Amino acid sequence: MPSASDLLSSVFGFSAFRPGQEDIVRAVTEGRNTLAIMPTGGGKSLCFQLPALCREGVTVVISPLIALMRDQVRGLKEAGVAAGALTSGNTDEETRAVFDALDAGSLKLLYMAPERLASAGTANMLRRIGVGLIAVDEAHCVSQWGHDFRPDYLRIGELRQALGVPLAAFTATADAETRDEIVARLFDGAPPEIFLRGFDRPNIHLAFAPKDGPRRQILDFAAARKGQPGIVYCGTRAKTETLAQALAQDGHAACAYHGGMGPDARRHVEARFQTEDGLIVVATVAFGMGVDKPDIRWVAHADLPKSIEAYYQEIGRAGRDGAPAETLTLYGPEDIRLRRTQIDESLAPPERRAADHARLNALLGLAEALGCRRQTLLGYFGEAAQPCGKCDLCDTPPEVFDATEAVQKALSAILRTGEWFGTGHLVDILTGTTTDKVRARRHDQLPTFGVGREFDRKGWQAVFRQMMGRDLVRPDPERHGALRMTAAARPILKGEEAIELRRDTIRAAGRARPAVK
Ligand code: ADP
Ligand code: ZN
């Protein structure tokens, strides 16, 4: 049987677990009674869908939300999972198909509205079909004090006892009274393992930096933490080797780790990392699944991670012991281009590619955030938070400026050249640099030529990078990465919306004069 992490990518198309998911998935798969409290949007459904595939028998999912059940069934079917729903929204044909699949023993997930539990026929049917697990969504509906009380939920506890199978309950409502009531009513005599963990890892300091001599940036970060165990994640195998060498030359104990190394060599690195003091492992994402070292003091990304989930999982390997740990994530326009191209060129269906773009946007939004990073990160996972005081942007709040005019100039350079050019050429046009290419295309005749003399090249590159980070422009792989405007940029171009950008990276860009405005 494939492992949970294989199924995570092959069936669900996710690159990493979200915070909390992995532990819950493990508990549910192992057949422990569980109650998981996760914020809305935190990714609860995966926590029963994935175990359903790993376990024998049918997983019965009870949910009060018919539209949501139908959505999930459709999604699962598209992913090739045998799932069906019995709800009042069914056509006769749909219901017949579900019963046929149950009789054939092929169904893995059976979604059911709680009303169904009231009929004697349902209990008999469930006894017959070989239920292996009961999953209860919106478990707070069993609580009489909440406004979502569903009397039929009171039957679930009996059902669990009658079938003698494990039960996994999920809710976003975390107050202690509701929790106690759920435990009493669903798990009478068989108390569940409770997962109630905020997603925050407050001991981990968060920081991002645009690439600006990335090797030097990583070497400096490591030098400031000499002798402390750390991980440097790289986008390619080749880079793990060269960066490990550079670190070794700087006097660190460092070694490379990637999927192209033999199993023995990999195990050797894993063992050294566990036992040796202060080793740095320079690795691809292949490193981490099996690593269980509580005192990793820092994690650096030499390249942008794949998604915000992957970012969280990778930095989350630092500071498991609760002592302070530090992270640094580097990113540049070439990372963004590479990630976009990887998504566009994948064979995934269009909706999944759109979701991947959205997850990348979330990470880029975090990279280019104007305020507390932790607030942005936790907000993405559905958790509200105050500014944390433990991220680079809380340490030094960035200076922002009204960049509406600069962004309009950049967009106009893109549009006037037919959305056929990359950053380099666009910057030439904006700064009024007459290159051969500019002359050959007669782009020195454009009204946009030389209108952007308020910034130097690096300044404009930072503007374009931040625009990519906000998804105002996207590189088009079918046009060799030429930048194209997205719908989100239209109101800015038309002057209906203003936009602020961070000044820091633009000023760090050298002799840039302040924007005229
Ligand atoms: P809720 O906790 O509100 O029930 P869902 O299960 O509907 O949340 O998940 C919310 C969103 O998060 C969905 O769009 C889902 O595809 C996405 N999601 C869940 N798990 C992951 C993951 N490991 N990586 C990326 N996206 C995920
Ligand atoms: Zn902060």
UniProtKB/TrEMBL annotation:
Catalytic activities: Couples ATP hydrolysis with the unwinding of duplex DNA by translocating in the 3'-5' direction
Extent of the signal sequence: none
Enzyme class: isomerase
Keyword Metal-binding among UniProt keywords: yes
EC number: 5.6.2.4
GO molecular function: helicase activity
Keywords for the protein's UniProt record, in alphabetical order: ATP-binding, DNA damage, DNA recombination, DNA repair, DNA-binding, Helicase, Hydrolase, Isomerase, Metal-binding, Nucleotide-binding, Zinc
Keyword flag Zinc: yes
Domain Helicase C-terminal per the UniProt entry, residue ranges: 214-364
Cofactor(s) demanded: Zn(2+); Mg(2+)
Domain (Helicase ATP-binding) ranges: 25-192
UniProt family annotation: Belongs to the helicase family. RecQ subfamily.
Protein name: DNA helicase RecQ
Section of the entire sequence shown: 1 to 517 of 682
